[in-house]
Amino acid sequence: MNFPGRNSSRSQSSDDNSSASPRTIGKLSQKAPERSTTTAVIAGVIAGMIIAYMVFPVEFTGAAPRHMSQGAIDQWVRMIAVGHSEDIQYDDANARVALQLIPNPQAVVTRLERDAGIPARERDAISALKDIDGFDDLTGALAPADPGLIGSSLQIIISLVAVAIAVPVVTVAWRTLAPAAWSGAGTRRGDNIDAGGSASQAAHMPRATPRAAPAARPPAGWPEEETERSGVVHPQFGVPVLHTVSTYVKGQNYDDSFAIELGPEFGNQFLGECGISTATRIGNELQSVEFWGFDMASQITQTKVFAAPAAVSDPALVASVGNRLNNPSADIVAATLGATLTVDASAIHIQAEIKSVVCNYGGGSPNSGIESLQIEIIAWQKQGQPSGISTGAAAPGPAYANVDVTAPGQMPSPAPPPSAASGIDASGSTSPQAKPPEDEEEDPFGGTGNFMPYS
After folding, report:
1. Which DSSP string do the residues of 365-433 spell out, in sequence order?
2. Is the pLDDT of residue 157 over 70?
3. Domain boundary among 381, 403, 437
4. Which of 18, 150, 175, 322 would staple 328 via disulfide (CB 3.0–4.6 Å)?
């Protein structure tokens, strides 16, 4: 049996559902990001991966030796061999402990002692590591697992897919929950306002003005809750204004420089400059480096030198750098772990400390060349507080509480006596309402304090 009324109602409901779906999709499409935006984000992620993995690989200063690359592990073993051969850094016990920190120490030592590219004396030092008691019993550290080509590829693909999904989802959610934060939100809402100027239009219009409020916010600067920069707090000079690390690896052109200046909240005031650069070489081997600091206040540059331990007393090195040093006997120090040099100037105090160093046979003898080097540089401003910053003076109330001030009514005044209308009663006393303001010349505080009561 046919029921015309029921069929027509069902048909009408179906039409409503079919028309609601495109409307919902249309609203989502308005809030979704453009395809170009998502594409640009994914391209940025890919570019970031290429830069991080290939152009500027990340270097971890706190990683264990077992996490190092094979080339770095070889340098580690060569450093142990050089130190052990001269009993400078490692005896048998220390050398055994250091070799235990890398994977397969016996295999690495055997391979390096056969490497023709290593000087003969250094190969002999490497071979001597096999004579250490307990060398054959070393188990070595566990090498980190290699994810392989498939694992590495999956990591990259999953990261890109996650970004491609997260960008539209986060954008739609943000524009739905906080449409006022987007400049185009008002335009999209205005599409639903009828042309007749109904009550819906009147309800939307007042909300258009407050959207300009975010533009009045002050520009973002240093966080207000930040009280000190990262670094070492000096017992006399406080928080450093510069804390950085300079790194050298054999084969590079070593010349680092760093500006010493205050933060943007102090106008980026320039205090000076410092840096590390090559001082002397022997052939292709680095023999010494210069640590220099320039003080803007005194316009003076001071220079110190870190030299390979065996080259500290080399007459050729002293003659090469001596003319730039104030006291060559004190300004040239051995480049050993923990060695420190300081530049104490008029307005800044700079410290350079060696955090890691590997020496080699660059000069023909042990520890006469520098294979790799890492120096921490910290600079402080000697004046304490930056210019324009309060040093924490006491509040005006307590500072003035014990000062004996004569009442203004009893102080002599060059002005003529006031008339009766100004508040003088018959007895000659001045009423509180007619108390004149303190004259600037009679103010014991030179006009710097305002003691008028608040009305």
Report:
1. STT-EEEEEEEEEEEEETTSSPTT----PPPHHHHHTT-----GGGS--SSPPPPGGGTB-TTSPBPGG
2. yes
3. 381
4. 322
How many independent structural domains does the chain possess?
2
- Find, among 338, 351, 449, the residue nearest to 400 by Cα: 449
| All residues at 6 or more sequence positions from 261 whose CB lies less than 8 Å from its CB, including other chains | 241, 268, 269, 270, 271
Span 238-253, pLDDT tens digits? 889 999 999 999 888 8
**pLDDT tens digits, one per residue of 186-202:** 444 444 444 444 444 44
Confidence of residue 386 (pLDDT cuts 50, 70, 90): very low
Contact 82, 122 (CB under 8 A): yes
Q: In this predicted model, which residue has the larger pLDDT, 130 or 450?
A: 130
Q: What are the pLDDT digits (tens) for 46-58?
A: 888 888 877 877 6
pLDDT at 163 over 60: yes
- Cα distance between residue 307 and residue 288, in whole Å: 4
Picking from 102, 137, 172, the residue at the C-terminal end of a domain is 137
DSSP 71-135: HHHHHHHHHHHHHHHHTSS--HHHHHHHHTTSSSHHHHHHHHHT-TTS-HHHHHHHHGGGGSTTG
**Residue that has been written with the tokens 């590219």 in this structure:** 117
Q: For strand 348-360 and strand 340-344, is the pairing parallel, antiparallel, or unpaired?
A: antiparallel
- The token pair at 221 is 């600067």
Q: Rounded distance, CA 274 to CA 255, Å?
A: 11
Do 126 and 247 fall within a single domain?
no
Distances in Å between the Cα of 322 and the Cα atoms of 30, 204, 280, 332, 352 are 71, 78, 12, 9, 19
Domain limits for position 99: 65-137
Residue 73 burial (CB < 10 Å; 0-12/13-18/19+)? Answer: buried
Q: Is residue 309 part of a domain?
A: yes
Rounded Cα distance between 207 and 209, Å, is 6
